[in-house]
Amino acid sequence: MDPTPVASSEPRDHSVFFREVTLRVGQGTAIALEHLDPEEVLAEPVVHLAGSLGGRLPEGLAVRLRQTLRGRRTFDVPLEAPARGRFNGRLQLRNGLNEFCLQVVRPDGEILQERVFGISYKSSFREWNETIFIAFVLALIIRSLVVQAFWIPTGSMEPTLYGEKHDPQTKELTRSGDRILVNRFAYVADLSLDGRIPFAPRIWLAMPRRGDIIVFKFPDPDPNAPPRDFIKRVIGLPGDEVRIIDGTVFINGTPLKEPYIAEPPWQDYSTTVPSDSLFVMGDNRNNSADSRFWGPMPLANLKGQAVLIYSPLKRIRPIRSYPHPVLARAPSSSGS
């Protein structure tokens, strides 16, 4: 990439003028100052400047090159052999905009002619830092808005998702819990980033389906309790009548086929799901703290849908929902 002139001015004294001024980056081709692209940002820190005057420099006059960094600090750049009508110099660039002023001056400091140009430079180290920073910010945004990793500590969702397992005698860890990815855009776009941005909205995109595996904030009755994330399977939607009779789950009187559970639940149960909530249960029905014990799960607590097991390696697989057929809303006597 090539440096760029910012501006140029006509000579104040036409008896002395710059005939040609070129810049060269590395071993590249020299480019005339007036032909440089103003949008270029150099990755090389050194630029070689060369030029010639319209004739031999009159006695008492001098060619001077001044460099200004970020519009503040100004210093002179050494030039070689200006008295023979030709001059050259080595420009050491700093990060940001480097402004240069090439001048022909009298001994008293009066400027007879000047050429002003600017060169932007960004070091590879700074570019890497900016790239890493941008990637970090994007990762935070993606994590907060699109996908988030979770770890399964317990066996409440077995056999679909494995939790940690310990030796009953030594208490040593014999199996690590699954690590999963959750699609946070499956149902709702939470622009508040879990409440970190006040007044930002939560935009609903879709309603969970029966059979989806979801992650949500546990509806703890204690407002001062630390937040906890739970993972369960959606069983009942708003308005559904949920009944468990002799190990079979009925939704609005229709029995569910549930090949994903560890074993049928041993306890009977009956409820109607509020209009702003879901009824959720773990697949390990007899080893799961779920809506049967702490009540319905408010839709406002929903975080996303579990979509992938990414660790351990032998467990890598998509997490599939088990969509149940559309069930009637009105309770049926067949489930009684």
Automatic annotation (TrEMBL):
InterPro entries: LexA/Signal_pep-like_sf, Pept_S26A_signal_pept_1, Pept_S26A_signal_pept_1_CS, Pept_S26A_signal_pept_1_Lys-AS, Peptidase_S26. The active site is at 156, 232. Residues 126-310 form the Peptidase S26 domain. Keywords: Hydrolase, Protease. PROSITE patterns: SPASE_I_2, SPASE_I_3. The keyword Protease applies. GO terms for molecular function: serine-type endopeptidase activity; signal peptidase activity. It comes from the Bacteria. It catalyses: Cleavage of hydrophobic, N-terminal signal or leader sequences from secreted and periplasmic proteins. GO terms for biological process: signal peptide processing. Its EC number is 3.4.21.89. It is an enzyme of class 3 (hydrolase). It is a single-pass type II membrane protein. It is found in: Membrane. One of its GO terms (cellular component) is membrane. The keyword Ligase does not apply. Its main location: membrane. Belongs to the peptidase S26 family. NCBIfam families: sigpep_I_bact (TIGR02227). This is Signal peptidase I.
